[in-house]
Here is the input.
Amino acid sequence: MENKGKRNPIRIVPPVLCILVLIVIPVFFRNPSFLQLMVLVLLYAYLTTSWNLVGGFAGVLPLGHTLFAGIGAYTSTLLFIELGLTPWIGMFVGAFLAMIAGLLIGLPTLKLRGAYFALASIAFLEGLRVVTENTKEIFGVKVNGPQGLLLPLKGDSLYYFQFDNKIWYYYVILFMTAVVLYITYKVSVSRLGYYLMAGGEDKEAAEALGVNVFRCKIIAMMMSTFLTALGGTFYAQLVRYIYPKGIMNLEFAFEIAFIAIVGGRGTIAGPVLGSFLLVPVAELTRLYLGGSYLGIHLVMYGIVLMLVMIFQPRGITEPLARIYNNILDRFEGARS
Amino acid sequence: MYLLEAIISGVTMGSIYGLTALGLTLIFGVMKVINFAHGSFLMVAMFVTYWLIKLTGVDPYIGLFVVVPVLFFLGFLTQRFLIYPAFKAEKDVREPISVILLTSGLWIFLDAMALLLFGAFYRTVKTSHSGKTLIFGDGDLIINKPRLYGLIITLLTSLILWLFLKKTRTGRAIRAVEQDRDAARLMGIDSEFIYDLAFGVGIALVGVAGVVLMPFYYVHPTVGVVFDIRAFIIVVLGGLGSIPGALIGGIIIGVVESVGAQFMTATWTEGLIYLIFLLVLFFKPSGLFGYKQEW
Amino acid sequence: MKLLEIDRLTKDFGGLRAVDRLDLTIEAGMIFGLIGPNGAGKSTAFNCIAGLYSATSGRVVYKGDEITSLKPYDVCRRGIARTFQLVKPFPTKSVLKNVTVGGFLRSKNRDEAEEKALEVLEFVGLIDKKDVLGKSLTIADRKRLELARSLATDPTLLLLDEVMAGLRPAEVEQVITIIRKINERGITIFLIEHIMQAIMSLSDLIVVIHYGKKIAEGKPEEIASNEQVIKAYLGEEYVLAGT
Here is the structure.
């Protein structure tokens, strides 16, 4: 929820409460499928919030962001397989590479108009996926093309970022999501955040106020790709098997974009809200109805997306935020 | 002779890609809207054709007269009841991004519904034209007849479209709205109706492509995806709003795909096509025939 | 001190010469006016100075440094702020947020930027509307917002492009007062205006351009009785009638 002018301490209570609840939940609900679902929900929350830095704040529409998750996943995994490097370090190497990739891709594409940028992002994603699928090995390092890479199993090992009990994955992704949310909040109240907003609202007006809109977009892009890559490594460690179509997946990239948008692009809580709403419903429909009604969760996704775009294109967070702020205001009023 | 056959195959297939792109460039040009559901409409057209042939045994090319109006109607309704409301809902923002997402939602919905209703099977249909070929010089050169018909019908359709846009009042109204919506309204043109019409025509074109493909291609709920992406690449390559651009762009892509397959794997040709796309986007975004777009 | 010097500034759009070897010098602290018939090239000249257009030839020199090829954001950072003829508020953001963007130019800290914004809003008289969204403002308030936003960047030179267009007489008076107050703070003002009484009463010096060329320069009284100026605005016949 965006912070209003008054920085009243009470406003920090609900988010903190949410985090506390999330920390405590797995202690009480130890059902493994529930944990599995929660890990998935949080992974989406993480990825959509990272996406939001460039898709929401910078006002462009990247539809190929899983490219960077792929860079992260492949980098950390290859370093692990070839050099035995712990993924905890490998993930940052991958993130750094993804950041450079973000810069190189952003430079020619961020000056394109919205629709063209979206298409270019798809082209880069599919292009890299295709190249990876056709690469059996590079400089002697086995990449395995379409079959992908299997992570050597190390059992329950903190050093190698592999856990038998899903609960540890849960806490890792919860921590990552909290960090990414904090970063998003910090950006939204910083000069970069305001400048990105201005560039998105009216580029000429923003430039006349001293805003180098292009440079701000590049910075946002680099931050986003860095964080997304970290998520890619998490995913690799979670499923312990990565292959081009699995991680550099176009449908997945679309999902991330539209969950963030349905939630509310450019807001802090929007993507998280979108994830908490849409992912469980999609997963549950897929699990319980998917057998007899193939792809029904996709039907649902499609309908939700269309309805939101017609009735509430800025996402569901806006109306919810108004209700939320009204309640908080009344609370403040009652105390004083 | 394989190379020549590959080229011809590329030209015929490419012309159909171009036909799909034609509808897209019309929509993109007139409404400045990306229709990500374009491929899904192609899939719908192919399913309609499939069931039409399966249930009535009618010749697919006669089926054109049923499929095309049906698709036109679908397009018209989609614009009026789905796209336009989303368009209006985001009037303040400069770029109609919500429409892109709406059409993405439609894409997902249509493909998923098809999956639900028809299952993930690859279906083909036998027609009186299936497998017929044109043979030159003792088997030196073999051309697949349905593909050839595809090329011919594509050229005819493009001609009809061109005449429609250039010579009829409605056609000129569409071009007027494409150039300057507000000025067109001041001239008394109902731009909302023109949008409905343009979208309908764009989808009707996809209907033709679907009919023409069915005799030699397969249908599957996700068949539209590849055509969709190709169509966008072609629109950018050929230039937004340009009819010859769409056709020529389509043929270029078709030939690259076909000839490329002779020398490298299918996935590398995919990659090559994306590379071409990106290069055009960076160095000549107005495409081969497009004019400089101001925003 | 010569704040802004324009030396043979020329801007061509294809075959059309919009600004033709324009020369002018603005001293620090003055209010400098630019007038001319519609289409004379005034906004084009502004856009060249502000970096939105690249000049075809000629130089723009600010505080002794050449700024001719600078981008708009660099021009702003040097201390030249501008408003737009067709106002451009950030529509979905509050007035305060709008102006805070300007405030961030001189300070990385949000609280400082916001404080600057509040101070400027107070100055232009928009403080009561600080939480109103950009798109919900009246035209007069939008003009004020535009002014406030550029003032928040702490400029030394302020370019005002027809900031009074579309306002009612009472509102025009208010804007004139604000402009005087801004100038009293030490900010040099270069303005384009069509409302003659306003620009005549405000300006220390006026330049008149027609078809991109300077046809007169001098104090307001001199301009008012200048034959060339009258001819340009009203046509040959009026010259004989005198003023």
User: Anything to note?
Assistant: Strands of chain A lie at 137-138, 141-142, 149-150, 241-242. The first strand of chain A starts at residue 137 and ends at 138.
